[in-house]
Amino acid sequence: MKIERCFTKDNESPYKNIKFIKTSSQIKNPDGSIVFQLDDLEVPENWSQVAADIIAQKYFRRAGVPAKLKKVEENDVPSWLWRSIPESDDTKMGSETSSKQVFDRLAGTWTYWGWKGKYFDTENDAKNYFDELRYILASQMCAPNSPQWFNTGLHWAYGIDGPGQGHFYIDYKSKKLTQSSSAYEHPQPHACFIQSIEDDLVNEGGIMDLWTREARLFKYGSGTGSNFSKIRGDGESLSGGGKSSGLMSFLKIGDRSAGAIKSGGTTRRAAKMVVVDIDHPDIEEFIDWKVKEEKKVAALVTGSKICAKHLNLILKACVNCEGSDKDCFDPKKNPALKKEIINARKLHVPENYIKRAIQFAEQGYTSMAFETYDTDWDSEAYLTVAGQNSNNTVRLTDEFIKALQNDDDWHLRSRRDNSPIKTMKASDLWEQIGYAAWASADPGLQFHTTINDWHTCPEGGEIRASNPCSEYMFLDDTACNLASINLIKFRNQDGSFKTSEFIHTVRLWTMVLEISVLMAQFPSKNIARLSYEYRTLGLGYANIGGYLMTSGIAYDSDEGRAICGAVTALMTGIAYKTSAEMASEQGPFPDYKRNSKHMLRVISNHRNAAYGNKENYLELSTNPVPLDHVNIKDKTLLSEAIKSWDDALELGEKFGYRNAQTTVIAPTGTIGLVMDCDTTGIEPDFALVKFKKLAGGGYFKIINRAVPEALKSLGYGDNAINNIVDYAVGLNTLKNAPGINHEKLIEKGFKKEQLDAVEQQLNNAFDIKFVFNKWTLGETFCKDVLKISDDQLNDFSFDLLTHIGFSDKEILDANIYCCGAMTIEGAPSIKDEHLNVFDCANPCGRTGKRALSVDSHILMLSVAQPFISGAISKTINMPNSASVEDCKNAYLKSWQLGLKANALYRDGSKLSQPLNAQILDEESDDDVEQPSAETTVEKIIEIAERREREKLPHRRKGYTQKAVVGGHKVYLRTGEYDDGRIGEIFIDMHKEGAAFRSLMNNFAIAISLGLQYGVPLDEYVDSFTFTRFEPAGLVQGNDTIKNATSVLDYIFRELAISYLERNDLAHVDPSTISPDTIGNGELDHPAPATKYISTGYGRSKNNNLFILPSADLQLTGTNDILTATASSVSVNKENVTETNTVGEAVQISEEVEQTLDKNDLINEARIKGYEGVSCDECANFTMVRNGTCLKCDTCGATSGCS
Question: Taking the CA of residue 1006 as centre, how many other CA atoms within 13 Å lie in the half-sphere pointing to its CB?
């Protein structure tokens, strides 16, 4: 092959015009702990800190790199391409520290194997190739998939080696299948694999063998997919006479296996795709798999918290009891315990756990450890359930779609003889798919007929599966290595496309991927053989969203789609042309001959679409969306796109093709960050304001760099652009701000010291509320000047700005001025007709409402798919309000427009991903309608109607409480059931015969009847406390209540404190007035004589009815913490009460702080445009949707394979 120079010059370093700098890299967890740190690393000056972090953390070889090297002479290789080894056995080993080392080992290895494979006409061509690739890598113009960075060049550049890992390769000279004896001489550069599976349990190629093959791939950072439809359904007969346990039982085994292996040795989960055909007997269970597992997570989370709460309340009821030891643990004698047991049973807390809590209390414990779960992706709840380690996809045929359209039946067929096992309406199955996608974002769909209509090699078999991200679709047991071109690097200042440079880059990187097939090793014999025979490649692009926005063109526009189609057509046309050129020298791929007519038909269909034709396609069930010539203003781009397909077909007819496939559009997660792409793959942008990382840690806000360029392209002047950018990013000051400013704060009592402290913190503030706190302002100022209590200061939900009198609108206005709106909606000078240029996948910032529609995603895919060999990795974002019908319509439209696959993601469909907004804001709690007297009566009658009256025993216990309320004597007498529940009350006051006294007597009778008919005392307490009428005022004679708003308020406070432990209604904590309270010097009083419950009630036999001091009550107070700690029954040590209480308070505050901090992080992430999910690797909440996967903008971790 002849290689020309485009970016470099002869006899000149490719790095000459690229300035390199030394920097440091540090990646931190949200808590500040360091995940990774490296100092003095060398990267190009124009690289962002994130790009530097990614190459340092992910792609630098961090061990085994020799400090000094020597060359290994090879007669058939130029000396400048000789591989290197350590200078001696004593050579010091270390890490790569310069990006140049990485660029050199990658480009050098490709050139080395290219030379050995005779891909260059002359040595000068090889030098040109080597330099051009190094320049492209350093300039962030293109990047290969992650396994290339991990593995390629370690043997060639440093002599790193190790024993073989069970891999195979085809020797490029002998063409024979060979088992690798070295781990690195032949690297594993492929990211994407498709593996077959047979309906066999333990033999090679069978079910259990697949888990081993998958593990080998996961270990090296690659992803794999398989079609599991050959496995028999549940209950199908086995050859030995038994019944199959079914597809799902084996999928669950594979899921656990994948979950146990960390891909590439990192902490992220393995990347795996599970595909099942629509006619499989177990397809319904497969469709609902993740829906059911999500429900299990919800049940685990909710159930664990219910159990933890009620078991500890039961334990508390035992501990806080004042009866005898045994009576405290008997619900018949301890009414508080009985109440808590009944409450726990209502919520189905297991009976044996209820018993266990009581037994814990009997042994002296004050709390019970019961682990609670949460909905974090990496939490124990998700780890407990199945189906979380793969993307699930259903394969639909056109036959099924037609049955759906005609409302026909659909047959689920036996895996043994293809006979119908179950018949159902196609529409019923379609409804299940729509609901599952709506509820759990799975399964995705692959359109089997469309995929195979574009199949270049049907003689080798059907395409049945894909890689985890759905962009690579080819035969089972094949592999694909990927690379992506950064489109923003090919935009001229005037907005035109650098067509010639793009063609040159596509040609070089098609060769890179082809040479990678030559040098690669594979995890199994079949994959090595078939990858050699078909030589599939995966060249793609990234940053189309950034390219369009920079040019002032909306993602959702005819022009934007036309450009996308043209660029895609040019890329694949040149790739196939290059493949045909290589075939002229190297020969076509080995299985080309019997597939030639099919492949030429597919190339003809691509060419027909490039010409913009709607008809005259060969053997296609669904015609594609052709290239839109009308809306392409760059006529050079258009003409070159058409010409590329003329050349590709002409050369292919002469020489064939070196590769069965050449292009896909991958998610470009981690490599997109290395190239500083604003957008990945074919995705639009996710946010207009980005948080740029600083080398020393921390972030600062910047506008997406495409925004100012877009505004300039749209004709805005410098002043207007600055105003719009300031509106989005903020001015980082409250000086002259609307709503809240220095003048208004001075009126509230702020001094220069406080204002300066606030201004200093505003530079890095995401929200001004986070700045106004006791740490910035000082506790003394908050208490003395702003009159804020200690409780308020320590309450993490306390809003200081609202407290001192600022309204929500004033706070919002100040926030936008200071911290920015993070959207351009509402910005000064922006024209409504230009807003669509800046639309992102989700609404931006605090106030943004606009977002790209579901159709805009599908339409963009539809213009690119006709020019892609494989498929496109893309998730269709849907708002939370989307319906099941919307999901079904999106899937159907995807099929109608000729897409090969589609995956939907409705906001909030995963428990692990929080909603953009709560159903009911916390601030709106006060707006909930309070029950009126009428509704209270109706509720009491409704409860009373549900049961018979339970009469009190003739001889019953209770107590009498005398008190004076507002100067009027009140006698309250209660009557109790044998188990301690209250069943009646008597109220005496005023003089005999007075109307008020009679009214109160009758009121007491009504209450008593309600209690005996089962109306909970809680209902009365909630209805009658805080009622206001005379007499009211000070209360004398009651130890716990010191004031009342009415007689009824007093009575039901007393009953609530005595029978419901509602100490929140008391003015004096009951625990401080019990007979055994340890004195504090102020409230100390002499201990009373031994108290008997009632001498008369027991007819003088009162040996077991006197009140015992409760040591445990004083030791623990109220304890809701789920830590099992044994409680001493001794009260001799004065510091016991104080120490335990403080310890518990600290633990409670830490838990509350942790929860609130996490919620703040989630909310902040969502406003920034992230998903609100924490990264598995660095724990930062910077995960963004990326194709069908997620990627972390902090450390570059992805849930995919590239």
Answer: 10
Q: Which long-range contacts (CB under 8 A, 24 or more apart) does 924-928 make?
A: none
Query: Residue 420 — φ and ψ, nearest 5°?
Result: -65, 130
**Does residue 462 have an active-site annotation?**
no
pTM (global) more than 0.85:
no
Q: Give, to the nearest 10 degrees, the angle between helix 884-896 and helix 854-864.
A: 20
The residues facing 3 across adjacent strands are none
Q: For the purposes of burial, counting CB atoms within 10 Å of the CB of 717, is it exposed (0-12), middle (13-18) or buried (19 or more)?
A: exposed
Q: Which of 227, 467, 595, 877 is catalytic?
A: 467
Joined together, the tokens standing for residue 524 give 């199994």
CA-based nearest residue to 781, from 802, 800, 761: 800
Q: Are 657 and 579 in contact (CB under 8 A)?
A: yes
Strands 478-486 and 192-194: antiparallel
d(CA 58, CA 61): 8
- Locus of tokens 């913190």: 761
The upper half-sphere exposure of residue 527, i.e. CA atoms within 13 Å in the direction of its Cβ, equals: 32
Of 1190, 526, 494, 502, nearest to 841 by C-alpha is 1190
- As a whole number of angstroms, the distance between CA 628 and CA 702 comes to 35
Among the ranges given (304-313, 451-460, 764-773), the one the predictor scored with the smallest mean pLDDT = 764-773
What is the reported pLDDT for 1175? 79
Helix count and strand count (H, E) for the chain:
40, 29
96 catalytic, yes or no?
no
pLDDT in tens, 29-41: 655 667 778 899 9
Which helix H or strand E contains 985, and what residues bound it? strand 982-989
Is the link from the previous residue into 443 a cis peptide, with omega within 30 of 0? yes
Residues forming a β-bridge with 693: 699
Respond yes or no: is residue 469 known to be catalytic. yes
**pLDDT tens across 80-109, in order?**
999 999 999 999 999 999 999 999 999 999
Please give the Cα distance from 364 to 372 (Å, whole number).
23
Per-residue confidence at 702, pLDDT binned at 50, 70, 90?
Answer: low
Q: Which of 471, 709, 825, 976 is catalytic?
A: 471
pLDDT in tens, 516-564: 999 999 988 999 999 999 999 999 999 999 999 999 999 999 999 999 9
Q: Which residue type occupies 709?
A: E
